[in-house]
C-alpha cells in the first residue's frame, strides 16, 4: 500500500511534460496514463494515480487561463504583438462583456496578402468550438498553387452583421486592399455582406458544396425541383459561362485547409478552449509555411526537367515561373502539338492577325486566335489566361508558329513568377527562424 499513500504520490515534471504533449496531439486521458504506466514498468512503479495526473494537468490548464479563457487568449495575442509588431488582432464583445467576434492575422499573412490577395475564399469547415461559435479562415493560393491563410476569425453567429464585421476588419488589416474575386460556400448572409463591403469583387460559389448539395437534393423530376430552380436563378455565381472571363487563380472550392482542419478536428473533439483552438490553427499554418519554404527552395535552387523540343521557350518559362506554375505551363505546351493552323486572316490594319486552329481528330471544331503584333498580345476565346493566369495551348501554338523563343510579358501573370514576393513588405516572420528555414531546405532535398 506504500506506493499509494498520498505522501508517496508525486507526478514528476518529466511525466507532466510528456502527458501534456500527448494530450495536445489528441491522445485520451486513459491512454496517457496507460502509456506512462508501461514506460514505468507497471502501476507499482508509476508513482501516482489516474486522478493525480488529471489534477496536475487541470492545474496547469488553470494557470494558462488565469482570468478566464478569453482573457488568456487576448493576453496571448498581446504577447504575439509584442514579438511581431505587424500582428493584427481586433475583437468585439456583446452587452454582457462576452466575446462576440474576433479576427487575427500575423505579419506573414498580411505580407502574403499584398502578393496573393487578388482571390480569397472563406473556409468554414469547422463551424463550432467549445462555445458554439463558427471558426472561419480567409484563405488564398500562393505562387506554388498551395493554400495560404490570410486571417482567421471566430464569430458569434453566421449573420450578415457578423460577416460584415469580419470583412470590414479584414480590409482594415490588409490596408483596405480589396480582392478582385471571392469564393464562398453559398451562405446567403455572407453573400449580402460581400455585396455590401466588397461590391466590385467577382463572386463564385464553391464547386464542392454545389456538388454535395446537388447529390442530396436531386433525385427525380429535375425541372420542378425547388433546389434546381433556386440555383438556376443564381447560375451567374457558379456556371462556367459566367465566370470564364474573370481571374480566380484556379480556386474553385473553399475546402482548402486540410492540414489546419486536421489539427482543429483533434482540438474540437476534446472541447478545448479558445487558446487551444488558436494554437491548433497556428500549428496548421506553420506546416503550410514549412511546405512553402521547401517549394521556395526547389524553385530557386533546382532546375526542372524539360520535356519538349521547344528548348528556348520552355527554358524561359522555367526561369520565370515557380515549379508548380511551370508544370502547369508544360502541360499546356505538350498539348499544343494537338493543334494545327488551318487558315490565316490578315486584318486591314496589318497589326492584327487571325488564326483558325483545329484539333487533331476534331476538325469540325475550330478555334480563332488573334495576335496583335504591336502589343505582342494573343487573344484566345476560351480565356484561360484571364481565368487562371497562365498561357493556354492555343496561344502557345501560335507562339511556336511565330518562332517565339520567349514568353511575351502579356502572357506572364506576375503572381505565378519566382520573384513575386520581392515586392512584398519585409515583415519579420517569427514562425520561421533560420534553423527552421535550414530544415526546410534539407527536407526539400530528401
Care to describe what's here?
The chain is α+β, with helices and mostly antiparallel strands and 446 residues long. It folds into three domains: 2-64, no CATH class; 69-295, no CATH class; 311-422, no CATH class. It is 46% helix and 16% strand. The protein has helices at 13-24, 29-40, 43-46, 50-64, 69-83, 107-116, 160-173, 188-197, 207-217, 226-232, 240-243, 258-269, 274-301, 311-320, 323-335, 384-388, 393-401, 434-445, and strands at 88-93, 99-105, 119-123, 135-141, 147-154, 181-184, 202-205, 339-346, 352-359, 362-372, 377-379. Mean pLDDT is 80; it is low at 1-8, 62-67 and 427-432.
Can you describe this structure in just a few lines?
By secondary structure, this protein is an alpha+beta fold. It has 18 helices and eleven strands.
Mean pLDDT score, rounded? 80
What fraction, in percent, of the residue positions are helical? 40-55%
Rounded Rg? 27 Å
Number of helices in the DSSP assignment: 18
Shape type: elongated
- Give the strand content: 15-25%
Helix/strand structural class: alpha+beta
Biggest β-sheet strands, sense, barrel = 7 strands, mixed
| H and E string | HHHHHEEHEEEHEHEHHHHHHHEEEEHHH
What is the number of strand segments?
11
Ordered list of secondary-structure elements with their pairings:
Blueprint: H1 13-24, H2 29-40, H3 43-46, H4 50-64, H5 69-83, E1 88-93, E2 99-105, H6 107-116, E3 119-123, E4 135-141, E5 147-154, H7 160-173, E6 181-184, H8 188-197, E7 202-205, H9 207-217, H10 226-232, H11 240-243, H12 258-269, H13 274-301, H14 311-320, H15 323-335, E8 339-346, E9 352-359, E10 362-372, E11 377-379, H16 384-388, H17 393-401, H18 434-445
Parallel strand pairs: 3-6, 6-7
Antiparallel strand pairs: 1-2, 2-5, 3-4, 4-5, 8-9, 9-10, 10-11
Amino acid at each position: 500500500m506504500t506506493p499509494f499513500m498520498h505522501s508517496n504520490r508525486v507526478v514528476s515534471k518529466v511525466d507532466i511534460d510528456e502527458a501534456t504533449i500527448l494530450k495536445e496531439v489528441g491522445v485520451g486521458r486513459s491512454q496517457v496514463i496507460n502509456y506512462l504506466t508501461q514506460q514505468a514498468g507497471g502501476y507499482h512503479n508509476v508513482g501516482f494515480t489516474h486522478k493525480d495526473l488529471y489534477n496536475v494537468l487541470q492545474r496547469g490548464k488553470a494557470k494558462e487561463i488565469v482570468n478566464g479563457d478569453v482573457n488568456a487568449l487576448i493576453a496571448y495575442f498581446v504577447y504575439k504583438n509584442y514579438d511581431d509588431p505587424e500582428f493584427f488582432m481586433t475583437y468585439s464583445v456583446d452587452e454582457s462583456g462576452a466575446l462576440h467576434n474576433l479576427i487575427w492575422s500575423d505579419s506573414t499573412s498580411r505580407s502574403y496578402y499584398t502578393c496573393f490577395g487578388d482571390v480569397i475564399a472563406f473556409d468554414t469547415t469547422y463551424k463550432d468550438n467549445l462555445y458554439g461559435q463558427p471558426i472561419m479562415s480567409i484563405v488564398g493560393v500562393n505562387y506554388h498553387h498551395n493554400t495560404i491563410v490570410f486571417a482567421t476569425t471566430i464569430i458569434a453567429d453566421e449573420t450578415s452583421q457578423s460577416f460584415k464585421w469580419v470583412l470590414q476588419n479584414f480590409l482594415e488589416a490588409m490596408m483596405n486592399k480589396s480582392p478582385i474575386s471571392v469564393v464562398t460556400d453559398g451562405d446567403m448572409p455572407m453573400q449580402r455582406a460581400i455585396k455590401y463591403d466588397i461590391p466590385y469583387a467577382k463572386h463564385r460559389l464553391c464547386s464542392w458544396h454545389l456538388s454535395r448539395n446537388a447529390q442530396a437534393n436531386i433525385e427525380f423530376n429535375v425541372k420542378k425541383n425547388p433546389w434546381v430552380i433556386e440555383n438556376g436563378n443564381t447560375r451567374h455565381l457558379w456556371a462556367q459561362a459566367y465566370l470564364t472571363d474573370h481571374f480566380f487563380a484556379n480556386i474553385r472550392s473553399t475546402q482548402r485547409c486540410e492540414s489546419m482542419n486536421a489539427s482543429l478536428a483533434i482540438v474540437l473533439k476534446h472541447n478545448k478552449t479558445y487558446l487551444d483552438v488558436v494554437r491548433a490553427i497556428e500549428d496548421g499554418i506553420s506546416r503550410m509555411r514549412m511546405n512553402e519554404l521547401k517549394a521556395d527552395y526547389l524553385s530557386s535552387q533546382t532546375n526542372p526537367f524539360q520535356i519538349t523540343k521547344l528548348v528556348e521557350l520552355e527554358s524561359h518559362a522555367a526561369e520565370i515561373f515557380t515549379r508548380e506554375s511551370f508544370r502547369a505551363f508544360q502541360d499546356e505546351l505538350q498539348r499544343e502539338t494537338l493543334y494545327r493552323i488551318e487558315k490565316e486572316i490578315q486584318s486591314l490594319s496589318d497589326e492584327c492577325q487571325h488564326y483558325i486552329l483545329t484539333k487533331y481528330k476534331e476538325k469540325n471544331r475550330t478555334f480563332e486566335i488573334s495576335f496583335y503584333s504591336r502589343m505582342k498580345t494573343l487573344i484566345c476565346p476560351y480565356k484561360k489566361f484571364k481565368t487562371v493566369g497562365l498561357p493556354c495551348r492555343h496561344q502557345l501554338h501560335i507562339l511556336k508558329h511565330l518562332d517565339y523563343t520567349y514568353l511575351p510579358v502579356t502572357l506572364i501573370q506576375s503572381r505565378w513568377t519566382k520573384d513575386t514576393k520581392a515586392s512584398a513588405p519585409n515583415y519579420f516572420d517569427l514562425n520561421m527562424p533560420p534553423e527552421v528555414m535550414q530544415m526546410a531546405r534539407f527536407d526539400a532535398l530528401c
